[in-house]
Amino acid sequence: MGELNYYMNNKFDIVIIGSGSGLMIMESALANGLRCALIEKSKFGGTCLTKGCIPSKMLVYPADIIREAQKSDRVGIEFCKPTIDWQKISARMWEQINYSIILEKNLKKNENLQVFNGTAEFTDRYTARVKLNDGGYSPEIQSKMFVIAAGARSLVPQIKNIEKTGYITSETFFGDDFPKKPWDSLIIVGGGAVSAEFAHIFSAFGTKVTIIEARPYIISTEEEEIRAFAEAEFKNNSIDVLPNSNIIDSKKSGTKKKLYVENTITNEITTVEADEILIASGIRPNSDTLHLENTDVKTDEKGWILTNEYLETTQSNVYALGDINGKYQFRHKANYEAEILIHNLFSNDTKKAAYYNAVPWAIFTHPQVAHVGITETQAKNLGKKYWVGKNYYSQIAGGVAMGITESSTDNGFVKIIVGEEKTILGAHIIGPHASILVQPFVYLMNANHKCHKQDIRKRNEISYPPLGSYMPINDSMIIHPSLNELTAWAISNINWAN
């Protein structure tokens, strides 16, 4: 159906590049009777479903259980050393990833949607072709509207001989490079969120993990005290952290891979050896594959597509959302932007702007880390008048019940930064359930967000929502994937007919 349909008519009302958050735009476009084209070069569902947050959490949760079992004796329960069924763990993960196959099949059944498996390339301002995965190119397609949600990919730094040595990225890990069993040893290049999650996963499964980070510290997005706490707890879990490290060479020796690392403070050179090397040192946008030089769409010096508060690019009727616009790389942020764009494209109401004042972060490592807003250092640098409140898990009954004491190495804490008029500037948490504990602060930071509320039943605009309404939740980003979605998404299931 698809091929025949396409060759008869190569004009579309909207072309969507990328099947992550782009699917939300596509569904609304189809619901509004538009003829759509969807272009996807990889598995359908985007990074989050196929090579990111969802499959990684299928590995994080078993690792969490192992870590909890290791500390259970402090509350009077002892477990034997856990038996890891890697095949079962892997099968559960692949079941989630392979949902992309069902998704693709269902999409191709839609009569008003043309699906292309390949890479989009602009040939003119409103014309593109697809470099097909199975070879060759599609004929040119035209549209009066393009939505670019093409995402990003791992950034591989220039390391001498690294291609000969061999390495994996998060993309290849959730693909052909997925191990048949946990490695005995693993080197992770980079100390950000992806690194922290993989370090937790494999160290819990018994892998000897070494993190190599060029900066003086890991998870640089976090509050200074939280960075230090996380690094100390990593070391308690037998994860080696090598900060201030510059990789000067790499080599494969038999079945082992080696990195030669120079400490930028002492100039000392050490050799780190492991079964595998995971590159997790950042991401780069996929804009370089789109041939944007044939359009008026502009990028910054790193290739991130420039957008305004309405997700509009520098070319009329071309929009960009998700990872590729460079404004935070989270699925919940991309979902938020999709909702904004859906409103602006398919409703007759006042255009909405995207706000990034309360973007929540969560790192599903051990201990869990989460924050929203600015750090104390940022507050100082901005010249803000502020106050700090802090509380430790050991200082509340719930923490004591978990066996956490003042002397526990994992005695995490929450740090709240408050500005004038008691406004929340930032909330930072490290410890159990941090991703859940931070979410209420996201809602509070959006409580004064000025937006017009619509009466869903009457469909007419009314005044600002009253205190106690659910609108701050509606206007907030919900950390994905977290249990916060369970409560927040219940609002969208309200049955107004009753």
What does this protein structure show overall?
With 498 residues, the chain is of the alpha/beta class. The protein has 3 domains: 2-48 and 96-152 and 284-329, FAD/NAD(P)-binding domain; 162-281, FAD/NAD(P)-binding domain (3-Layer(bba) Sandwich); 361-492, FAD/NAD-linked reductase, C-terminal dimerisation domain (Enolase-like, domain 1). The chain contains 17 helices and 22 strands. The protein has helices spanning 2-8, 22-31, 46-51, 53-70, 86-97, 99-107, 162-165, 170-173, 193-204, 224-236, 331-346, 376-381, 397-401, 434-437, 439-445, 471-474, 484-488; strands at 11-12, 14-17, 36-40, 113-124, 127-132, 141-143, 146-148, 152-154, 185-189, 208-212, 239-242, 245-253, 256-263, 269-274, 276-279, 283-285, 318-320, 361-363, 369-373, 386-392, 413-419, 424-430. The strands form 5 sheets. It has an 8-stranded mixed β-sheet. Strand 2 (14-17), helix 2 (22-31) and strand 3 form a beta-alpha-beta unit. The longest helix is centred in the N-terminal third of the chain and has 18 residues, at 53-70. It is globular and about 65 Å long. The chain starts with a helix and ends in a 10-residue tail after the last helix. The relative contact order is 0.11. The model is unreliable at 1-8 and 450-460 (pLDDT under 50).
Write a concise keyword list for the protein shown above.
498 residues; disordered N terminus; FAD/NAD(P)-binding domain
Widest beta sheet: strand line-up: 1-6-5-4-3-2-7-17
What's the average pLDDT?
Answer: 93
Total strand segments: 22
CATH superfamily of the largest domain: FAD/NAD(P)-binding domain
Helix content: 25-40%
Q: CATH class of the largest domain, anyone?
A: Alpha Beta
Main sheet characteristics = 8 strands, mixed
Strand content: 15-25%
In total, how many domains does the architecture comprise? 3
- Contiguous helical run count: 17
Low-pLDDT runs of 5+ residues are 1-8, 450-460
Can you tell me the overall shape? globular
Briefly note the CATH topology name of the largest domain. FAD/NAD(P)-binding domain
Architecture per CATH nomenclature, i.e. the level-2 architecture of the largest domain: 3-Layer(bba) Sandwich
Distance between the termini: 41 Å
